[in-house]
């Protein structure tokens, strides 16, 4: 799906998802992260229409890398969180193309805390690190246990997670900075579809290189 920003000729290729649990949001304003080859870093942020007191719809071009996108997202989060006009009930969403409905779908990322540091070296006994690499592999790591590597897009991910998981464990997600935003959304949807599991996830997500 191509999304045209209001009053602008620029186009965003939205990430695609098979199904979204959220398809309608009221009281919104929108921000855009364009893929722009004319820019030095190929990314352009347009936030002039974002209103702090509203729900934010952040439209990210799926071709952008996480190294390009996440610093911009962190910037927007900080702006909203530090504003005196902040609305505590307002949420932040990524806009996607819901293939099942052939319409827009949304992924809530309000509670996600992004960090640009690789925190795997600080893993504790009760912390499981799931690293999504740029070579289609997923690596599971926990202090005192052998590293497990599995193929991405596989149900083995949750089978292996359940082997690692014990009561009190927390799962922290890490993503290679070279992954595209579409890759990131694909991995996020894997977990969204498994909400019925007893797994507990950290609000923190980190990038690594």
Outline:
This protein is α/β, with parallel strands linked by helices and 209 residues long. It has 2 domains: 2-110, no CATH class; 115-208.
Characterise the protein shown here:
- This protein has helices at 66-81, 156-164, 181-192, and strands at 2-4, 11-13, 16-17, 28-35, 43-46, 55-60, 92-98, 103-108, 113-115, 127-132, 137-142, 148-151, 170-176, 201-208.
- It is an alpha/beta fold.
- A hairpin with a 4-residue loop joins β10 and β11.
- The two termini are 30 Å apart.
- Give helix % range: 10-25%
Q: Give the rounded overall mean pLDDT.
A: 86
Helix-strand makeup class: alpha/beta
Tally of DSSP helical segments? 3
Instruction: Give the biggest beta sheet.
Output: 6 strands, mixed
The count of β-strands is 14
How many domains? The number is 2
The low-pLDDT segments are none
Q: What string gives the helices and strands in order? A: EEEEEEHEEEEEEHEHE
Given the C-alpha coordinates, what overall shape results? globular
Distance between the termini: 30 Å
Strand content: 25-35%
Radius of gyration (CA) equals 17 Å
Which helices and strands occur, and which strands form pairs?
Elements: E1 2-4, E2 11-13, E3 16-17, E4 28-35, E5 43-46, E6 55-60, H1 66-81, E7 92-98, E8 103-108, E9 113-115, E10 127-132, E11 137-142, E12 148-151, H2 156-164, E13 170-176, H3 181-192, E14 201-208
Parallel strand pairs: 3-7, 4-6, 6-7, 9-14, 10-13, 13-14
Antiparallel strand pairs: 1-2, 4-5, 7-8, 10-11, 11-12
Keywords:
209 residues, alpha/beta, 2 domains, six-stranded mixed beta sheet, 3 helices, 14 strands, globular
């Amino acid at each position: 799906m191509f999304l045209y920003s209001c009053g602008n000729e620029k186009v965003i290729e939205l990430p695609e998802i098979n199904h979204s649990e959220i398809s309608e949001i009221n009281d919104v304003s929108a921000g855009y992260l364009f893929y722009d080859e004319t820019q030095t870093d190929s990314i352009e942020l347009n936030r002039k229409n974002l209103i702090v007191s509203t729900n934010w719809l952040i439209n990210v071009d799926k071709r952008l890398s996480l190294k390009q996108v996440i610093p911009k997202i962190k910037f927007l989060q900080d702006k909203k969180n530090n504003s005196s006009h902040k609305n505590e009930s307002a949420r932040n969403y990524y806009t996607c193309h819901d293939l099942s409905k052939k319409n827009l779908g949304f992924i809530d990322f309000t509670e996600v805390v992004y960090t640009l540091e690789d925190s795997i070296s600080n893993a504790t006994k009760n912390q499981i690190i799931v690293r999504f690499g740029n070579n289609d592999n997923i690596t599971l790591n926990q202090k005192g246990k052998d590293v497990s590597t599995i193929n991405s897009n596989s149900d083995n991910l949750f089978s292996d997670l359940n082997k690692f998981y014990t009561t009190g464990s927390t799962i922290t997600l890490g993503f290679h900075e070279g992954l595209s935003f579409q890759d990131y959304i694909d991995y996020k949807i894997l977990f969204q579809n498994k909400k019925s599991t007893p797994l507990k996830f950290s609000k923190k997500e980190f990038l690594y290189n």
